[in-house]
Amino acid sequence: MEWFKDWFDSPYYHILYKDRNFDEAEQFINNLLTFLKPETNSRFLDLGCGKGRHSVFLNKKKHKVVGLDLSPESITSASTFENTDLQFYVHDMRKVFRVNYFDYVLNLFTSFGYFENNRDDYATINALSKGLKPNGLVVLDFMNATKVISCLRQTETKHSEGIEFKIERNLENGFIVKQICFSDKGKNYCYHERVKALVLADFEKYFAANKLKIVHLFGNYNLQEFDKNTSDRLIIIAQKE
Question: What is the extent of the structural domain holding 215?
Answer without folding.
Answer: 3-144+199-240
